[in-house]
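Priority: medium. Attachment 1 of 2:
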């Protein structure tokens, strides 16, 4: 009987391990598919649904720490659901609202997934993301220099968009993998320096050829923030030296890389145009920044919003400001809960930057990337970026797990003296 029981236990463990391997593979594939979104529904949506089903069958539990994220995402989308009613018969408004709900669900999914086997699941998720970034960066370069069939399909106005619909989404997608590559190069191990440097080079080629000013600034700001937080949190003087050396060497290498690319007339011409801080469509009464002012003034007259995709009917273009878009498409409820979601994530997440955890460095990279996205949200609509919701979910997932680990450690520490008092001879 004991032998049979042992066999049954071994079989159960093997089955559990096999199921987890499938889940890990799905996470890798899910993150990888996030780089191929030029059609809708994209592979990302299909794989996400499969992953949700697979993980749900294995058990997904909502912890107390997840409740603020769930509440804010729910209220955020209720705002859209209310605002869409008057315009629901118009083209794409219902689909836009459904996509918003779906993306919010993905954030919650990532947060729940990281509750168990956190380190390994995070590793596979980011490996898939990095693999996608490398592949799409190579496609971007090949398309830009017309070294592949149907190259024009991967370009927009002379800029590489790779497998995305817009260069301004493609560029920011590359930031987190670039930061992870920098961290790998800082490790000091020769193999990691080589592979991290090569990965960073390939990704930066794609980032540059997107000619997205927002993405360039996003990378620069997030990289500086990440290195600063790593410098402040490490206890190793050797690592501090490596951070300084990598930052200095990386700055020089990037400068030389840009100079080399600018020696190509085609690139130099577009760069001189894109490098201007203010484009002609930014300035003026109804330019990008003028629309921001006029749009925020409209908020007071439309407490339930004007509905999804309606802003361009009042002005020449879309809001190009995620906070304004949340108010316009979701009313006061959607706008204020979106602002609260961002603010709570940044404030609560900052504490975890300085908290010891096995994944602290990775968390810092994700947090620095999210900070950059929040900054970009002021000049572009990020509300339907798939990787934005991935970042959000990962931050909340790791915050909840780290706090659960801390609470458990405190309970264990309190239990020791209690046992000693009851059993003083032990």
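Attachment 2 of 2:
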């Amino acid at each position: 009987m004991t032998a049979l029981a042992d066999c049954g236990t071994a079989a159960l463990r093997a089955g559990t391990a096999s199921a987890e391997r499938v889940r890990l593979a799905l996470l890798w594939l899910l993150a990888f598919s996030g780089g191929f979104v030029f059609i809708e529904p994209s592979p990302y949506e299909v794989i996400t649904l499969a992953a949700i089903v697979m993980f749900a069958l294995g058990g997904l539990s909502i912890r107390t720490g997840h409740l603020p994220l769930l509440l804010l995402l729910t209220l955020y989308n209720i705002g859209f659901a209310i605002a869409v009613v008057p315009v629901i018969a118009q083209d794409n408004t219902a689909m836009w609202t459904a996509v918003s709900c779906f993306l919010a669900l993905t954030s919650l999914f990532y947060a729940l997934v990281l509750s168990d086997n956190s380190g390994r699941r995070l590793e596979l998720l980011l490996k898939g993301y990095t693999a996608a970034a490398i592949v799409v960066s190579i496609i971007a370069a090949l398309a830009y220099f017309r070294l592949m069939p149907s190259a024009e399909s991967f370009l927009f106005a002379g800029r590489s968009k790779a497998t995305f619909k817009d260069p301004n989404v493609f560029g920011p997608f590359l930031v987190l993998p670039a930061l992870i590559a920098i961290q790998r190069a800082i490790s000091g191990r020769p193999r990691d320096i080589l592979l991290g440097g090569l990965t960073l080079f390939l990704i930066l080629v794609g980032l540059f050829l997107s000619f997205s000013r927002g993405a360039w600034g996003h990378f620069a700001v997030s990289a500086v923030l990440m290195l600063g937080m790593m410098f402040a949190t490490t206890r190793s003087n050797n690592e501090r030296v490596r951070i300084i050396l990598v930052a200095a060497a990386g700055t020089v290498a990037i400068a030389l890389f840009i100079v080399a690319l600018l020696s190509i007339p085609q690139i130099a011409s577009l760069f001189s145009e894109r490098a201007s801080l203010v484009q002609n469509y930014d300035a003026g009464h109804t330019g990008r920044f003028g629309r921001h002012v006029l749009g925020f003034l409209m908020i007071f007259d439309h407490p339930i919003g004007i509905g999804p995709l309606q802003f361009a009917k009042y002005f020449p273009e879309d809001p190009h400001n995620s906070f304004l878009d949340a108010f316009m498409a979701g009313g006061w409820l959607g706008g204020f809960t979106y602002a609260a979601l961002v603010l709570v994530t940044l404030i609560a997440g900052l504490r975890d930057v300085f908290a010891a955890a096995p994944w602290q460095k990775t968390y810092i990279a994700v947090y620095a990337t999210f900070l950059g996205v929040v900054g970009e949200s002021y000049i572009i609509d990020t509300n339907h970026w798939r990787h934005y919701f991935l970042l959000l979910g990962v931050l909340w997932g790791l915050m909840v797990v780290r706090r659960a680990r801390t609470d458990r450690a405190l309970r264990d520490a309190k239990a020791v003296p209690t046992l000693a008092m009851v059993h003083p001879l032990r």
